[in-house]
Structures are given as C-alpha cells and as structure tokens.
C-alpha cells in the first residue's frame, strides 16, 4: 500500500513527541542513574555527561530493539485496530504526548518519576479509549501484558536492593572491616572489573541485538565469549590498574599522571616521592557547609531563570514590618542577626550560584550577564521597550538552556543547604553512616566509573523501548499504509535518533532531577556507589533479557536504599524522600493513563467532514 500522505501531520506530531519523550527520559531517568556517581564524587558532572552519552547510545543501538516489542505489541494487540493505520498512528501519538507531558511537568518541579511506567500507563489509557478495556492486555500475557510490567513496580526495587546490599556487604567484609583496608581494596579490585565486564558483555551477547544474530549462537559460544571478555578485562586491570592505584594510594605518589597507567607492573619499582607523606587523595566526604568565606554580591539579581517572565530579585536578609520590606533596610547578606525563611535561604543560595556564573568567561557568562542586565520592564510584552529587551534576551535564553545544566553545582544543591530543614534532615541521616578512609574510597572511585558506564549501558538497552516502540508503530503504519505488523522491525536510525535525544536531555536538563537524588536519600561514597550501580544494572539487564520494560530509576533507588540499610540502621535512609518517590510513582499510573485516554477519546470522536 502507498504511504499515507494524508496522515503526514500525525507522523510529524508523533515524531516530535517521541523525541520529547526520549529527551525527558534522559533528563529524568538517566540523570537519576548518574546522580549516584556524581554524589560519590567519582566523576564530575561533565564527565558524567560524556560517559553517559557514549554508553547510552551504545546500549540503545546494540540491544534496545528487543525491549521495544513489549510496549509496542504486548499491551494493545495490533488486531484490535482492525487494520486502520490512521487510528493506530493517532493512538500511539496520544500515548507519547501524554507520557512526555507528564514526565516533563514532573522534571520541571524536580519530581522524579518513571518514564517507563508513564508510557506504559498512557498506552493502556489510549487502548481503553480506542478499542475498549477488554482489548487491553491487563494480565500476564506471556510476560508482555500490564500485569507482568507492573509486577516490576515492586519486584525491581526489591531485587536491586538485594543485589546492591549483597555487593556492598561483600566489599564491607573483604575491605572495610580489615586492619589494613587500603591494601585489601587495591588487591581485590580486579574482581569488580570482572563482574562489571561480564555483565556488560552478557547483555550484548546473550539474546543481544537481533541484527547481530548472536542469540542463535551455541550456548558454549555465548559462555566462552562472555567469560572470556570478563576475564580479559580482569587481567588487564590486574596488570595495569592495580600497579597504578597501588602507587597512587599506598605509595602516595602525587607526581603520578594518568598516562603512567600504561607502565603497568613497572610502577611497582617506581620510587615514592620524598615528601609522599604530604600527599593526599581527594576528599569524598559530603560537605554541606558553604566552603567559601566570601559571598558574591547578589543584589538585584535574577533568582530564577524563567524564560518569558520578568526578573525576580533574590531573597536577602531583611525584617518584615506589616508584611513589607522597609525602605531603609541596608543589612548585608552575611548578617547573622536576621533569620531567613526556608524559601529565602534557598533563593539566596541560588542567587549566589548565579552570581558566580555571571563572572564566567565564555557564552554562558555572557548569557547570564545579558539576562541580568536586561530585565523585562513594566507593561505588556508588546511594549516597544519590552520587545527590544526581549530581542536581547532570546539569544541569551537559548545559550543558557544549552549550557546552564552542564555548569550547575550538583554537590552544593544535592546534599541539602546547610541550616535548612532539608540540610538538618540529611545531617541526621549522614550521622548514621560510617565514613571510610579516602584512600579506600579513591580506589573504588575508579571501579565506579566502570559500574556507572555499565548501568548507563543497561539503561540505554532497556529504556529506549519507551519511545522507540510507539514511534516504530507510527512510522511503520505511515510508511507502509497499513497497520504495523506485530513483528515489524525497529530501524536502527530510530534507535540512534532517540538515544541522541536521551543524551541531550541528560546534558541540558538532567541537573533538575540529579540535585534531589543521590545524597538526599542516603550517604554516598564510591564503594557504596559502585554497589548501588552494579545492583541496579544487574536487575535492569535481567528484566531486559526477558523483554520486560522496567524502570531504571526504581532499580537505582532500590539499590540505594539497600546499600543505605547496610549501615546497620534504618535511620541511615531519608524515608521522607523515599515516601515522596513512592507517591510520585503511584500517581504516575492514573495520571498518565487518564491523559492518554482523554486525549485519544477527544481526538477520535471529534466531529469532522468527509470529502
């Protein structure tokens, strides 16, 4: 059949919302995954952006096509559309619109939700509006129905919590409780390289990308390749990583550079510096206090970067008289005689950060200064003065939208502002977590880079199906002129485009979720962080191999709680944050489903004229 030219508008809108859904996936779910690494200070925020982009795309393109089939065909059977390609295109377009709108609203308000369950719920709602509740696969449906998918709502966090706790307890018993934990950390590190490399290889080889045909290979071949790759990485880490980290944390050779890793065993003979006792590894302890003695001037500064709204002066210490600020109040920001409200303290903290950005060189500094120096004036937007101002602000807004997230101070925002209720609550949580030596944590910071990349690879393999499944249905129906077949292949270019959008979402807007995750659940450190990420990666890959979409965010959250409980007390976990997360997850199901069903019902039954 010919291409459905009359439905070009549906295809265009569906493509737009598929890309928006992938963008929100990166800003919400992927940001949550990398929050663990950034919280542990194993990687910087910019390093997380680079590594996340690479491994998300590799995971999505290599093994992402299989998971797409579940969302595409397991919830609404293609036979229910009775061959009407137009209705099928509209149904999945509405599902993408509902899911992406809900996730974007939540991301804007720093409410972490599951993009997987948003899309699944929206598809179910659309199915009810389109073909009736009887046609929606509510049960198990051979592991592809809603029953199987929503079973992961409880299973995934519990399983990942168990995996994370087991791995961390292994590290704790082998390393942390030893008399000389640093040496134990160095010499046992190849084992964790073995585990991470084996999991990553297994996800590709065992029932991996259909285009590679690796699933058809004999089991002996799969086992040999998987274990061989893991053993090879383990051997390389023993030959190169162990000597390098030995010289760095045991000999305290502060003159060591990254390229010295290639010297391998020769580093054992490298003499330590004479003043090695003065060397120090990075500090991995979470610090809530402001480390700067001086505070930049933030007077009359725009506290929020709100596109299209007038400038907002940040909150500063002042005394309210009858609900108004006295005109003669000249108190400084550092005055301890005045007490700030919670919102005022948060606004002041944000204003300080924005003031630092204004002092930067380059595009972002220029953009922040432009917005600060050109506030919107009184009156409507069509006033000549405001239109001229807006012409100056629009380019700056675009630059800030692209670069603000990369320069965001995640550590300052993530642990809770000191002196606020959130900061006091997190200080109480941190007090119940043992602090291990920085030398040991520094060793695991290298391992966490690998575990973080493995977790990101697992996310790309699993969650790309959220967006590419419906989009593949829309594209197949539009290009062929017929309702998509149940086994319609997912083009690789679609996987590449949407994985790119996931990466863009992580880079530009991921900070909005990352700042409320990680250290706001429990105390983080590299040894804890790699346990969390490995536990989550194991869970995601297990679910992915059975073609069950599972929320990566739920997995990493479950693993975080599991590791937090290994501190020996439930008080080491911020249960208020966990309660808010659980509420957001539960509310996602009815809200996303209702949005999808209502939008589909309205559009499907809109009066129209036939030609």
From TrEMBL:
InterPro entries recorded: Phos_transporter
Q: Give the chief site where it resides.
A: membrane
List, in alphabetical order, the GO biological process terms annotated in this UniProt record: phosphate ion transmembrane transport
The membrane-spanning stretches of this chain are 6-24, 45-65, 85-105, 117-140, 146-172, 184-206, 221-242, 495-514, 534-566, 578-604
Identify its membrane topology class.
Answer: Multi-pass membrane protein
Molecular-function GO term, any one? phosphate transmembrane transporter activity
Give the UniProt entry's GO cellular component terms: membrane
Listed Pfam families: PHO4
Q: Where does it reside?
A: Membrane
rRNA-binding listed as a keyword: no
- Alphabetized UniProt keyword annotations: Membrane, Phosphate transport, Transmembrane, Transmembrane helix, Transport
**What this chain does, per the record?**
Sodium-phosphate symporter.
Stored PANTHER family: PHOSPHATE TRANSPORTER
Q: Which family does it belong to?
A: Belongs to the inorganic phosphate transporter (PiT) (TC 2.A.20) family.
What protein is this chain from?
Phosphate transporter
Q: What organism is this sequence from?
A: Kwoniella dejecticola CBS 10117
List the taxonomic lineage. Answer: Eukaryota, Fungi, Dikarya, Basidiomycota, Agaricomycotina
């Amino acid at each position: 059949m010919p291409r459905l030219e009359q439905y070009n508008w549906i295809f265009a809108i569906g493509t737009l919302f598929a890309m928006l859904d992938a963008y929100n996936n990166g800003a919400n779910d992927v940001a949550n995954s990398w929050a663990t690494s950034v919280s542990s200070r194993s990687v910087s925020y910019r390093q997380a952006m680079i590594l996340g982009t690479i491994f998300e795309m590799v995971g999505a393109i290599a093994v992402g096509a299989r998971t797409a089939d579940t969302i595409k065909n397991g919830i609404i059977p293609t036979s229910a559309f009775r061959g009407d390609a137009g209705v099928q295109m509209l149904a999945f377009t509405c599902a993408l619109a509902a899911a992406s709108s809900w996730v974007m609203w939540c991301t804007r308000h720093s409410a972490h939700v599951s993009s997987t369950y948003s899309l699944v719920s929206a598809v179910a709602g659309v199915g009810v509006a389109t073909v009736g509740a009887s046609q929606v696969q509510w049960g198990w449906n051979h592991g592809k129905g809603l029953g199987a998918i929503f079973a992961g709502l409880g299973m995934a966090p519990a399983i990942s919590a168990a995996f994370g706790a087991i791995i961390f307890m292994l590290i704790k018993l082998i390393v942390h409780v030893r008399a000389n934990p640093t040496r134990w950390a160095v010499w046992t590190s190849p084992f964790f390289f073995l585990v991470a490399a084996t999991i990553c290889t297994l996800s590709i080889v065992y029932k991996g990308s259909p285009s590679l045909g690796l699933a058809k290979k004999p089991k002996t071949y799969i086992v040999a390749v998987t274990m061989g790759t893991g053993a090879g990485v383990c051997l390389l880490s023993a030959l190169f990583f162990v000597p390098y980290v030995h010289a760095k944390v045991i000999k305290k050779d502060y003159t060591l550079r990254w390229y010295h890793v290639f010297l391998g065993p020769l580093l054992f003979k490298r003499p330590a510096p004479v003043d090695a006792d003065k060397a120090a590894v990075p500090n991995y302890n979470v610090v809530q206090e402001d480390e700067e003695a001086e505070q930049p001037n933030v007077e009359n500064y725009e506290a929020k970067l709100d596109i299209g709204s007038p400038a907002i002066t940040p909150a500063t210490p002042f005394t309210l008289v009858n609900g108004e600020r006295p005109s003669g109040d000249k108190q400084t920001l550092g005055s301890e005689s005045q007490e700030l409200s919670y919102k005022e303290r948060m606004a002041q903290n944000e204003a300080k950060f924005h003031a630092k950005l204004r002092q930067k060189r380059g595009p972002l500094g220029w953009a922040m200064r432009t917005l600060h120096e050109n506030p919107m004036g009184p009156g409507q937007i069509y006033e000549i003065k405001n239109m001229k101002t807006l012409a100056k602000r629009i380019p700056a807004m675009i630059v800030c939208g692209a670069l603000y997230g990369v320069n965001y101070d995640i550590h300052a925002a993530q642990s809770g502002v000191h002196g606020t209720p959130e900061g006091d609550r997190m200080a109480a949580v941190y007090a119940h977590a043992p602090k291990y030596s920085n030398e040991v944590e520094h060793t695991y910071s290298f391992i966490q880079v690998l575990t973080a990349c493995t977790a990101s690879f697992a996310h790309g393999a699993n969650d790309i199906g959220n967006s590419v499944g419906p989009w593949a249905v829309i594209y197949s129906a539009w290009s062929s002129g017929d309702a998509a077949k149940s086994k319609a292949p997912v083009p690789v270019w679609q996987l590449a485009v949407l994985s790119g959008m996931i990466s863009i979402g992580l880079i530009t807007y991921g900070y909005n979720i990352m700042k409320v995750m990680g250290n706001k659940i429990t105390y983080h450190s590299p040894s804890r962080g790699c346990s969390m990420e490995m536990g989550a990666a194991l869970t995601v890959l297990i679910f992915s191999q059975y073609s069950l979409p599972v929320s990566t965010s739920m997995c990493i959250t479950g693993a975080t709680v599991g590791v937090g409980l290994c501190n020996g007390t439930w008080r080491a976990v911020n249960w208020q944050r966990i309660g808010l997360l659980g509420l957001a997850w539960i509310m996602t199901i009815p809200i996303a489903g209702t949005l999808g069903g209502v939008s589909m019902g309205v559009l499907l039954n809109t009066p129209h004229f036939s030609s």
